[in-house]
Each structure stands twice: as C-alpha cells, then as structure tokens.
Give the backbone structure.
Amino acid sequence: MDADKFEWLLRTGDNALILSQRLSEWCGKGPVLEEDMALTNISLDLIGQATLWLALAGKVEGRGRDEDELAFLRDVQDFRNLLLVEQQNGDYADTLMRQLYFDLWHVLWLNAIEQSSDADIAQIAEKSLKEVTYHLRRSSDLVIRLGDGNDESHVRMQRAADRLWMFTGEAFIDDELDQRIASRGIAPLPSSLRAHWLERLKQIFHEATLALPPAQAWMQSGGKQGRHTEHLGYLLAEMQFLQRAYPGAQW
C-alpha cells in the first residue's frame, strides 16, 4: 500500500464528501426554490467527486474497501477533511461564505493537480474542475450581490466572513505528508496557493463592499490530521446511520 497517497486521497475525498453532506441539509429548506435546487445540485456534484477520490483511495489502500465503506464505516478521527467544510450551515450568509472560501481554494487546487505525476489523480482533477469552476462563479456572484445589497444582507455577509475566517488558513498549511507528496510531483505544496487565493478573494470582497479579515489572523487547524470540531461527529451520526444500523444493507 502507498500509505502517503492513500492519506492524501482521503483528505481530498473527505473535503468533497463532508461539504456535500452539509449542503444536502438545505434540501427542501432553501430561501427560494432556485437556491434550493442549486445547492442540491452542487451537493450532487461534490458527492460524485468524493466517489471518484474515495474509490481511488480504496484501490491504493489495497484492503478491499470501496468508496462506500470509506464513507460510511470510518469513525470521526479517521476523517481528514478541512475544518471549514464541517462547519454548520448557519444562515444563508454563513453557507454562501463557507462556499466561497472553499470554492476559490478548490478551483486553484484542482488546477494545480491537473498537472499531477499520477495519471489517475490528474484525470479526476480535470473532470471535477469543470463543475467546480461553475461553483466558484455562482458563490462569488452571490456574495457580491448580497454584500453590496441592502444593509441587512451586508451585515450578515460581513459577520459570516469574520466568523468563518479562522477556518480558512488550514488549507494552506504544509505538513510532512504534504511535503512528501510534493516531492513526488503528485500535488504542489498547499502554501503555494495562498497568495493567489488571497488576491482573488480581495477582488471579490472589494466588489462586495466587504472588509477582508486580516491575512495574518490566528487560524484553527487539525482536520487534516483527524482532529475535528464537535460538529463533524453529529454530521457523521446522521450520514452513517443507515449503514451502521443495518450493516451491508443494499437498495
């Protein structure tokens, strides 16, 4: 088993899986019908991407676990997603700001790993990038419209931006695994994307008339190593319930 590649694939797949589950919680509860459908479709895009990443992880692991087992039969400390994506939906401003922060990183990340030395990883990145490019276009447009909207929408968007900011820095922290993966040409160092992410985010916030939180602010981390907020446990309890209650159940 290629342990480093397996762990890296879990990180990538878990981001899509957990954010998909979060967005699916809006199904039937969106502020307007169009947004209800849009969030559900983005959730479906992400679950499709998670399926590809986790299926490849299972293949690399070589223990016979498929994408379903990796999704539904791991405990919370075995998940490697960023803390940002497990944060609760909050109000619509929180959901949109979380989406913008993630989408902008996601586009940069997929663009970078399209050049991966691993052909399977590069292929999944190429396929996913088409969807994620749309995700970013949509989230940035809505943040701009609401940030530069009325007083109420502006206050809510600024509050969401400030509250979620401390969870953004983890995406750009290089740990030992990141360094080993970069040395093999599989993916670049996460820190290499930070300047571009910040510059594009400044442009979006300027159009949205929002104040960008301090770039050097303290950042929360730990999700990539399996140390999560309390929110992930509740999310997994719901997501994994059926498989845990009825092991091996199939439709």
